[in-house]
Amino acid sequence: MAAIGVQPLEALDRRAGGRRFFRRPSLGRSALARHEAKWGLIFLAPWIFGFFAFTLIPIIASLIFSLTNLSLEQTQPLRFVGLDNFVRMLGDHTTWDSLAVTFRFAAFNLPIAIVVPFVVALVLNSRYLRGTGLFRTLFFLPYVIPFVSGVLAWQGMLNLETGWVNEFLRMIGVQNPPNWLQDTTLIYPSLAFIGLWGIGAGVIVNLAGLKGIPTELYDAARIDGAGWWASLRNVTLPMMSPVIFYSLILGIVDVLQYFLVPLVLYNGTGEPGGSTLFFNLLLYKQAFNFQNYAYGATLAWLLFAITLAITLIVFRTSRRWVYYAGER
Fold first, then answer.
1. Number of Cβ within a 10 Å radius of residue 283
2. Which of 135, 204, 209, 233 has the most CB atoms within 10 Å of its CB?
3. Which pTM does this prediction carry?
4. Which of 196, 177, 168, 180 is nearest to 266 (CA)?
5. Is residue 87 within 8 Å of 270, Cβ to Cβ?
């Protein structure tokens, strides 16, 4: 730069006593940046409006409702009751029973919902399997079918008298096939089996993660003498840990809000023997069947607090087992 008569900015700074004569232009204040920011806000405006109208305002409204005696059949004037609804909720044994049902099912179903799509993706990612594109389509198709239709189809297939599952069991010699949807010992396996109907999205996500693992890592492991199991444990699982973490978070949120299947199968009655009275179903019944909006909003805030607490714990512990390739 000195050869062509141009002095560095640092030299000019020193000559000016530390004051800089020439300032680098601020890109954030340029006309192009302002133009891009304006159009960015324009394109974001529908989402921002939707967030405020359909998420933030209802959240605030539900908190306000939980502090009142609001119900559709208002026998008393609307008034502020403070934490009375929360005290009532904590003293209601139905609340704890439904939470116990939800957590028992979560402990049974969540590992299945994470492991099965991962294993299926491993099989589809095998270089020895032909026609993987067809299998990917077949696994994903049930996901795009309305879930209520799928639940009703499985209700017919698991029927004690006419379902084809029990018909097949009778064909192979089982004289008294189980009552899948009414036996309390088989409710959770049956519901988990129905849930596998929609694993297509999880399979695709896991398959995308497997495709993103560099083949050089497997080559290096093979050179070191690692077999299939050692490669899975030392290469695949660490590299797939962000995807597993993502699936775990979504699985926790989904299973704590488990609602549609028991509503369709049992019309929200909690049969058999209260084994399907999930917490989200209790919330729905209080708010919409009994039309006690204040108490329903209180239950919703308890569910939010539980979901948030578990999610934060998982995020906190993820530092020990989730590996990100870009981190040092």
1. 22
2. 209
3. 0.83
4. 180
5. no
- The whole-angstrom separation of Cα 145 and Cα 89 is 37
**Could you check whether the bond before residue 272 is cis, i.e. omega within 30 degrees of 0?**
yes
Query: What DSSP letter does each residue of 215-232 carry, written as one string?
Result: HHHHHHHHHTT--HHHHI
Spell 218-244 as b/e; 16+ CB within 10 A means b.
Answer: eeebeeeebeeeebeeebbeebbbbbb
Write out the DSSP string of 6-31. Answer: ---HHHHHHHTTT--SSPPPPGGGSH
- For residue 241, which phi and psi values (nearest 5 degrees)? -60, -35
Q: From residue 304, how far is each of 170, 227, 284 by CA, in Å?
A: 45, 45, 14
Torsion (CA) 8, 14, 19, 21 in degrees, nearest 10: -30
Residue pair 108/95 in contact by the 8 Å Cβ criterion: no
Domains annotated for the chain, with CATH where assigned, are: 92-320 (1.10.3720.10)
Q: What separation in angstroms does the CA of 222 have from each of 119, 124, 215, 228, 237?
A: 21, 21, 11, 9, 16
Q: What are phi and psi of 222, to 5 degrees?
A: -65, -40
Can you give the pLDDT of all 328 residues of the chain as single tens digits? 444 444 444 444 445 455 554 454 444 568 888 888 899 999 999 999 999 999 999 999 999 999 999 887 767 788 899 999 999 999 999 999 999 999 999 999 999 999 999 999 999 988 777 777 788 888 888 888 888 898 999 999 999 888 999 999 999 998 899 999 999 999 999 999 998 888 888 999 999 999 999 999 999 999 989 899 999 999 999 999 999 999 999 999 999 999 999 999 998 888 888 999 999 999 999 999 988 999 999 999 999 999 999 999 999 999 999 988 766 5
User: 213 is written with which tokens?
Assistant: 């693992």
What is the 8-class DSSP label of residue 300? Answer: H
Residue labelled with tokens 């409204």: 61
